[in-house]
Structure formats: C-alpha cells, structure tokens
Amino acid sequence: MTESTKYLLSEDRLPKAWYNLNADLPVPAPPPLHPGTGQPIGPADLAPIFPMAVIAQEVTAERWVDIPEPVREVYRLWRPSPLVRARRLEKALGTPAKIYFKYEGVSPAGSHKPNTSVPQAFYNKQEGVKRIATETGAGQWGSSMAFAGSLFGLEVEVFMVKVSYDQKPYRRALMETYGAKCIASPSNLTHAGRSILEKDPNSNGSLGIAISEAVEVAASRDDTKYALGSVLNHVCLHQTIIGEEAMMQMEMADDHPDVVIACTGGGSNFAGLAFPYIRENLKGGKTRVIGVEPASCPTLTKGLYAYDFGDTGKLTPLVKMHTLGATFMPPGSHAGGLRYHGMAPMVSHVKELGLMEARSYHQTECFAAAVQFARAEGIVPAPESSHAVKGAIDEALRCKAEGKAETILFNLSGHGHFDMQAYTDFFAGKLKDNTYAEADLKAALAELPKVG
C-alpha cells in the first residue's frame, strides 16, 4: 500500500461509456405506466417533455452507452474527479479502517449534478430545443443545469423549492450568473403552483411541486423540454461515470472497498457510485452497499414500494418506487436535495432485490459528522453529502469496535460553500431535527394510485 493521499486519473483515462445496471439485473425493473390507461408508456408518451435521445437512454437494455465526444470534452473541465484517502479522518477516529472518498465537489457547479446536466443539454441542443424547464431542491441541480445551458446556448428556467430559495440566496445568484432564471416554487406562473398556494399560501414547497411546475411549462411550449436531475434511469446512467472512475482509482491504490456508501434523495449520486459495484456483486463480489437518507424524509426506510406519481401535481407517468406518497410534504431541512417523496425506480428495485442496505439519520448528527470531517480533511460537505459522511464515520467506528481493518468508500457528492447558513445555524444551536407527522404520511400513502 502506498502512502498516497490522492489518486488522480489522467484525462486520457476518462471513461468512454456509461454503465446501465438494468442490463445485468436478475429481474428487470417494472416499467413506467401511463396514468390514464395503466399500460406501459412508450416513446410517444414522453416526447412532449424529453428529447428522443434521452428517451432512448431511459428505456435502453444495452449494458454500455457511448458518451458523445462533445460531452467528454466538457467533462474534461473537471473529470476525472479525484479519489482521496481520508488518512487524517482515520487518525482522528482511531479506526483501523481505511476511508476513501470520491470527491464530486470539484465540478464547476460544486456537485455531481453536471455529470447528467451536460449530456441532457447536449441532446436537447442536438434536437433543436431552445429552452429547458427544470426544478431544484437545494440548488445543486439548478446550478448544474444553468451551467450546462450556458455551454450549449439554451435558456434555462428553474423552479426552486421555496424553503431553499429563501435559505440559499447564493445558489440563486450562481444560477443567474450562468444565465438562468430562478423562480420560487410554488409560484403563480403555473396551474400546479397556483393550486398549491390556494390551499396553503405559505407553502414551503417540495421537489414534487417544483417538478409539477417545470413539467407543466415544458408540456405547454413546443420550444421547451424538461430536464430532471435525479430519479430517472437516464440520470442514473449518466452518473455511473463516478463509479467507473472510482474502480480504476481503487486499483491504483491497490485496494478494494468492503463498504460503499452514498446519500440518497432521488438516488442519482448513489447510483453513480454504487451501480458499478452492484454489477461486480452480481458476479460474486462481496461489497456492502449502503444508501443513507434523512430521517425527516425516509423514503427507502419507511416508504412503500408501489406505483406512484413522480410529482405532486400528478402530471408524470406512474413509476414503481419506494414512496411516501406524491402529496407528502417533508418538513423543512437544509439537505433540500434529499426532500423528495420518492426514490429512483432503479434504486428502489435494487433495494427490493436485496442488493443494498438503507439507513436514515437526523440532520444534526449529520452536521456534527460534517464538521468533524471538515476539521480533519479540510472540505466542507454539502448538507446532502453529510449523510454519507455520517454513514462512513459510523462504519469506521464499527470497524474500530470490532477490530476490523475494512476499506470504506463513500461519495462526497458536493461541497457546502453555498450552504454556510446551515452551518451557522448548527453552531448557534438553531438547527432542529424536524420530524414528519405520521398522520400526514398515512394520508399521503392513502392517495397512492390504484394499479391492477
């Protein structure tokens, strides 16, 4: 074992293809259904909101999908991203475990999200689209789509969940710097937004509501398409460049993870790191794979595996996923990117097949872990990523208690430089562990669509 801290791939080793886990699963994932007919949807059903190239990737059964050279050219601005051995954190914990993290905060937008915003912008531009409508929770996705839109000459309109819009003004400023328009959601610009505001004028919003608004705008204009930053198969596909790079870098370190960890909200950064390792597990590998989510929005640990709408306004196809119900309103959280009522269908299917574990944490314990990590390694994690940090620290402490020198790999999916108010609140003791009302969850689950 070398004493290296960083493992860096040269640009000529940038992966040339994304990996599609669906090609290797022992049981195929259930198909999306048309909410009107209850039948599997076809390309024509998705064409009003997505370009055909993206639709093809959504349904492909191919194991590998080539990355277009113009996309790889943009990726080279920050990829391959570094793999880092967290030696100082290991020492601080006194653990025999080896801890590595794949650092996605080096992208221009500060997170893993440009891995999919860049190809989505490219495919839309290829098909003559002029405008993109999208949503964002904490602002990571909105920033990334704004960045990608600026590269390919697309207008970008972002509906940002209101609680995050108010909490994170610098995320809004970053989107505007890239040329995008940022709107607090729910808004008065759409029927979906107005209907929510009529019921609750002070609504904090949710990802489900913001998705409804963006989809409505995209469906109503011929020059506009919709882009989603997580959940769907094509997004998980694009993110697998993380895991493919990590595997080469772990080889450079002459090591292999016993445990792979990532936070889960919609599922994209988890899929990006974990899906390549799940592929190896299906061939006989023994890596534990853990998804970590917020206790205030516990989709994998408390949600039902059922067909549901991906948005609150019920404009999307029905997808089978772990869900808290499309009308469920998660309590406010600084990890706004994890406040989504559902989980990626592919991630949900992987959970059902027993190919991953899931756990949940409250936000104050995640911030405590993030501060410990920052004081050891120097990087301030995004609130979403702090869940993965907490999971990795807990696994390292388990190794300490058991006297096991296991190898832990986690995805540090983004930095927290635009989230410092959350840290200020944490240090001031203002950060609370908000919990959802069981009655609200029960009511939302009671509204799940009936699928035969």
Assigned CATH architecture of the domain at 6-13 and 68-110 and 234-446: 3-Layer(aba) Sandwich
Q: Strands across the major sheet, in which order?
A: 1-4-5-15-10-11-14
Report the major sheet: 7 strands, mixed
Beta-strand portion reads: 15-25%
What's the total number of strands? 15
Structural class: alpha/beta
Given as residue ranges, the uncertain stretches (5+ residues, pLDDT < 50) are: none
Mean of pLDDT: 95
Rg result: 20 Å
Number of helices: 19
Structure description:
With 452 residues, the protein is of the alpha/beta class. 42% of the residues lie in helices and 16% in strands. It has a seven-stranded mixed beta sheet with strand order 1-4-5-15-10-11-14, with helices on both faces. The chain has a four-stranded parallel beta sheet with strand order 8-7-6-9, with helices on both faces. α13 (268-282) links the parallel β10 and β11 (288-294). α3 packs antiparallel against α5 (114-126), α6 runs parallel beside α8 and α9 (191-199) packs antiparallel against α10 (207-220). It is globular and about 55 Å long. The mean pLDDT is 95.
Short description:
The chain is an alpha/beta fold and 452 residues long.
Keywords:
alpha/beta, single chain, 4-stranded parallel β-sheet, 15 strands, globular
Describe the SSE topology.
Layout: E1 6-7, E2 17-19, H1 43-46, H2 52-59, E3 64-66, H3 69-75, E4 83-85, H4 87-93, E5 98-103, H5 114-126, E6 131-136, H6 140-152, E7 155-161, H7 162-167, H8 169-177, E8 181-185, H9 191-199, H10 207-220, E9 224-226, H11 233-239, H12 241-252, E10 259-263, H13 268-282, E11 288-294, H14 299-302, E12 304-309, E13 318-323, H15 345-352, E14 357-361, H16 363-377, H17 383-402, E15 407-412, H18 420-427, H19 438-446
Parallel strand pairs: 5-15, 6-7, 6-9, 7-8, 10-11, 10-15, 11-14
Antiparallel strand pairs: 1-4, 2-3, 4-5, 12-13
Cofactor: pyridoxal 5'-phosphate
Pathway: Amino-acid biosynthesis; L-tryptophan biosynthesis; L-tryptophan from chorismate: step 5/5
Keywords: Amino-acid biosynthesis, Aromatic amino acid biosynthesis, Lyase, Pyridoxal phosphate, Tryptophan biosynthesis
